[in-house]
Design a protein that fits this description.
Elements (H helix, E strand, L loop, with lengths): L3 E2 L5 E4 L5 E9 L4 H8 L5 E4 L4 E2 L2 E2 L2 E6 L3 E6 L2 E6 L2 H14 L5 E7 L2 E6 L17 H12 L8 E6 L23 E5 L2 E6 L4 E11 L2 E2 L21 H4 L19 E2 L5 E4 L14
Parallel strand pairs: 4-17
Antiparallel strand pairs: 1-2, 2-3, 3-15, 4-7, 5-6, 7-14, 8-9, 8-13, 9-11, 10-11, 12-13, 12-18, 14-15, 15-16
């Protein structure tokens, strides 16, 4: 089907799951593009991905950042919850919930306008080594979401955030020796409606703004305001930080970085694009 150019210059395409996405691009200053987003993360949800590792066409060439996403996906064990942070997120939550209801390996739980709780069902059979990546895990949820929004027309849109080490035990169930805190999150990912892209080779930067629509549901005209969560410093590292990198507290003497797992900065641990494969994770010592 491809991309359709609208009269106002924006681009529109339809995803694999039938979601109509309208993308509007605007140029922005290259010099301070990334730094401006790092500053925002002092009190806003989001992620900044930047690398100094060289590989042709990747890593050092591209910096990507998101801020104030409308929706987030978190998990702990086999429990997953999706949260809408504003009215735009409510629309996305409704679209995604409809898709997740069709997945046999998921059991949907409590639902409100701004939150959906669900459980990944335990495997009903033994999976061989070759099948492990397809067994029911939190990645079953991610596969359903990526399938809904997948399109070859856009290489930037995706889920941005952090993966914790305990996700490895989704595939290798063992008897855990350390008690996990009740507020631990194994995964924190954001679905953005605005993405900053920086091309360090051409010294250019731009911001892509997205509108989502499916049937009679659309983010157009919906409020995108979110409540700030200011950075909080600490001199103590909780035990939870050992197993949950997303919750790693920051020393008061450390430069500004992520707070309580809601944001991650230049050292952001993971990005799960619509076409990304299941990441390779290693458990931490003393599990």
């Amino acid at each position: 089907m491809g991309t359709r150019i609208l009269e106002d210059g924006s681009e529109q395409y339809v995803t694999k799951g039938g979601v109509t996405i309208t993308r509007t691009r605007r140029e922005t200053s290259y010099a301070d593009a990334i730094d401006s987003y790092v500053e925002k993360l002092d009190e806003r949800r989001g992620a900044v991905l930047s690398s100094n590792y060289e590989y042709p066409g990747r890593y050092t060439r591209w910096d990507v950042a998101v801020c104030d996403p409308p929706l987030g996906v978190s998990s702990f064990g086999r429990s997953v919850w999706l949260e809408a942070y504003n009215e735009r997120g409510e629309v996305l939550l409704d679209i995604i919930a409809e898709e997740l209801a069709r997945v046999e390996d998921l059991t949907l739980g409590a639902r409100s306008a701004r939150r959906l709780d669900l459980t990944v069902n335990a495997p009903s059979r033994v999976f061989t080594e070759e099948e492990r990546s397809k067994m029911p895990t939190v990645f079953t949820v991610l596969r359903a979401i990526t399938g809904l929004f997948h399109s070859a027309e856009d290489s930037s849109i995706g889920l941005y955030g952090a993966f914790g080490y305990d996700l490895a035990f989704q595939f290798d169930a063992i008897d855990l020796k350390l008690k996990r805190p009740d507020d631990q999150r194994d995964m924190v990912l954001f679905l953005p409606d605005e993405i900053l892209v920086v091309d360090n080779y051409s010294a250019k930067a731009w911001i892509d703004r997205y509108e989502y629509a499916k049937e009679d549901r659309t983010t157009v005209g919906k409020a995108g305001d979110t409540v700030p969560e200011p950075f909080r410093s600490t001199d103590t590292i909780r035990r939870a930080a050992i197993t949950d990198p997303a919750n790693m507290p920051i020393s008061s003497s450390t430069p500004r970085r992520a707070s309580s797992g809601e944001t991650c900065s230049r050292s952001c641990r993971a990005r799960n694009s619509w076409s990304a494969a299941t990441p390779s994770l290693r458990p931490s010592p003393g599990v």
